[in-house]
Design a protein that fits this description.
The chain has 105 residues and is mostly helical. The chain has 6 helices and 2 strands; from the N terminus they run αααααββα. The longest helix is centred in the C-terminal third of the chain and has 15 residues.
């Protein structure tokens, strides 16, 4: 048995994907977008209005979030509604908020 298997270290691919996920969460604008999408499906315009930055900046951040698999866009005629990809992301948010509220940071 290798040392990494013995200590339950993630595989290289798991490690790379996990780091990319944490990087996506590590930006305040992306975190705000994810937080908004944890409650609603929203368009780029709605997200931009809520956060107060340009549609172009929101689109750029959404592209990064789509690439990491955190959000997906659902076409509805001329507009695209964005939503979180799955329930795991909401769980991550809830656990982070609980951790912060408990004063663990």
């Amino acid at each position: 048995m290798t040392k990494s298997a013995e200590h339950n270290l993630p595989s290289t691919i798991e490690l790379e994907r996990s780091v990319q996920l944490f990087k996506a969460f590590g930006d305040q604008t992306r975190y705000k977008i994810l937080s908004l999408l944890s409650n609603n499906n929203l368009t780029v315009n709605e997200i931009a209005d809520e956060i107060g930055i340009t549609q172009s900046a929101i689109s750029h951040q959404l592209k990064l979030l789509r690439q990491t698999g955190l959000v997906k866009g659902i076409r509805d005629g001329q507009k695209i509604n964005y939503e979180l990809s799955d329930q795991h992301i909401i769980t991550i948010f809830e656990q982070v908020r609980e951790h912060v509220r408990e004063g663990n940071l």
